[in-house]
Amino acid sequence: MDTKQLTLPITGMTCANCVATVERNLKKLDGVNSAVVNLSSERATVDFDSAKLGITDFIARVNRAGYGVATGDAEIIIKRLSDDNDARRLEKSLASLEGVLEAQVNFANEKARVRYVPTVVSQSEIRAAISKSGFEAVELGGEAEDAEAKAREHEINEQRRLLIIGLIFTVPLFLFAMTRDFNLLPDAFYAMSAMAGMTRAPAAWTNWLMLALAAPVQFYVGWQYYVGAFKALRNKSANMDVLIVMGSSAAFFYSLPITFGWLAGHVYFETAAVIITLIKLGKFLEARAKGRTSEAIKKLMGLRAKTARVIRPAANGGAGDGEEISVSIDDVRVGDVVLVKPGETIPVDGVVIEGKSSVDESMLTGESLPVEKKQGDAVIGATLNKLGLLKFEATKVGKETALARIIKLVEDAQGSKAPIQKLADQVSAVFVPIVVVIALLTFAVWYFLVPQFANYQFTDSTFTTALINMVAVLVIACPCAMGLATPTAVMVGTGKGAEIGVLFRNSEALERAGKVNVVVLDKTGTITKGQPAVTDIVTRDSILDDSKSNNEYRISSDELLRLAASVEKGSEHPLGEAIWAEATARGLGLGEAAGFAAEAGHGVQAEVEGRSVAVGNLRMMNARNYPLNGLESEVSRLQSEAKTAMLVAVDGQVAGVIAVADTLKENSKDAIDDLHRMGLKVAMITGDNQKTAEAIAKQVGIDEVLAEVLPEGKSSEVKKLQSQVKGRKSSDLRHSTFDVIAMVGDGINDAPALAQADVGIAIGTGTDVAIAAAPVTLMSGDLRGVARAISLSRKTLSTIKQNLFWAFFYNVILIPAAALGWLNPMLAAGAMAFSSVFVVSNSLRLRRVSL
User: Fold this and answer.
1) pLDDT tens-digit series, residues 217-233
2) CA 320, chain centre distance (Å)
3) What is the pTM assigned to this prediction?
4) Is residue 83 packed enough to be buried (19+ CB in 10 Å), middle (13-18) or exposed (0-12)?
5) Which of 282, 288, 603, 675 could make a disulfide contact with 620, Cβ separation 3.0–4.6 Å?
6) Residue 313: CB partners within 8 Å, gap ≥ 6?
7) Is 674 a catalytic residue?
8) What burial class does residue 664 get, using C-beta atoms within 10 Å of its C-beta: 0-12 exposed, 13-18 middle, 19+ buried?
9) Among 330, 336, 349, 522, which one carries the catalytic annotation?
């Protein structure tokens, strides 16, 4: 089975019941494995068998369910069309492109019109397909548009237009009704009273005036609610539209026979109009607020350069370095040589081949300090070149760049469902039917039972009172707030994470990270830099016998390092490379090594400038019976400091010690302190011996050390922690009551442990394998990002809980209040409209939290 994933932008959804309806309809298609619909991002993500289904099947199903799919329209000028056959060939080629719904190519005006789904195919990919077919595409308007954003904007503009129309009719209607009911109008608006002193009755023609003002609101402004309710009921479900239609229609149609003179009583046209207009206002504000939840994605997209300056072979094929030309970012190819001047945005990912500069990567990694770049260093698209001129080779373009992958990762996370949303979904599935039942029971109780109490005084007829209370129940109920509680917080939370360089793969990871109690840190590359470096050089403070020259001399630290590096120049061991690198950095001239020999597990030896030089451990020196010359205490001291002591012997005598260590990252201690302040326990896992590991742990404040663990044993250690922590109480970390464990690492050998942990956190400077195995990725190598990720998760989870509490509290309190007759339907409509706005606004507060 060829399983594929498809993301569709859905239009027309208003509440959680709409989400359930779309999901249910998509899952009915044969070949669909899973379907997840997100109300906040208004997207459906479907995993399906591509051999059975295509994109048109999903669009047809969504339309049948009563909703729509946002599409884009591109108009592109085509060059090099020779005849109508070329037009038909290109048309066929475009139509076969996945995501293209319709393609028309006109040879006469040399234009192509393409209708497409923006989440599946982009305009740049359409232009690339045109180029691949042998033609040249010129886009009208200069820049590719965000078709999905345009469709959303059109929807918001339509809501704004209807809201304005609603206000034009509703405000005068409401003011007229209020002044009329309070006898504030001139006598011409009232019928003559039968007896002096009685309240004046409104003139019959005023009801017709109110009907004229209310009808456009009811059947034009509110028509989409009728359509939505019809489609929902046709799909055997009930959504917010059903409640709005039932509530407003009850008030409107009850008023009609009174207006016609068939019944006596009070008309409620203003109630119906105010209900629809207030809900329309709430929906408009909600749509605008929802748009702000995705601002992080828009900011990331805005980082992309529009053009790139590339160096390509001269058009005439002449010799030389080629010519410098400016091309669209979409036209940059892998292997292109790209030139970036100071102050310009780096357009795509690549490797520096010439030049030196500092690059601001804060927009992607959250790292505030610029990063030095030189020949051989990688550069990331969308980062800012600060100082020097850089020339680099493009290695990743289009959807393969780091920025494009980040955007895709954030979009996937925003479109996923957090486990905490399960309760809201379960309630939403039965919410509207229950509200309808409560509304009918409210009417029955007020009409049949309440009049039995002789001391109860009705201000209106029993039927009118029962009807008004029923309408209040219908319009006060708000399934929207429950549907928006989780996804809006997830969208803002994942977006905030992207801004600070913390990427969550899905909303489940975002939720679970906040529950972490124990953080297990890999040592190499996570706590430490992962690159051994020389830390100490200790020389023997005594006179060595030079048998060859019969002279006495002292060996300086530089001379000791030079001799050792001359031998290690032929070694591939990381410790030897560290010694060689330090000597090179000091500018020491290395001698030629003859007779190089390496002894596994001991060290290396060679002849340098006529002298026998051996560099190795204590075992090597003891095996050769070389005297240590009082350096034993220095070796012990260095080892206690988690350093590897390399003894250097010259002509059979130990002349000094060179200490090599994997040095700590600058912020490792601060990061672990941050975790401790958050109440977390911190463990370190490493292959080092226990003594060395404990020395490093002491420097940074680690609580527990898991030492001498082989690479393949890291996942087993994490699994052991998970199995042993349940339900035990002990001061030992392995037997504590903590039950959610995070693993932080960066290497290939960390991938199994990252996958095994409850929450895997990969350091973004590490390998792609580690990042792929982890649900959370830190874009920078700064370990402080772990605390930021957990803190962001906790704040997001807290916001979700606040939203859910408000959504449930609102409905649990106000629905009974409406049923008891304590709420006017117009006030109920206002409360209902602004409940969703409150939830979205509360989620937006996450954008301002400090981490």
Assistant:
1) 999 999 988 988 888 88
2) 46
3) 0.75
4) exposed
5) 603
6) 322, 323
7) no
8) middle
9) 522
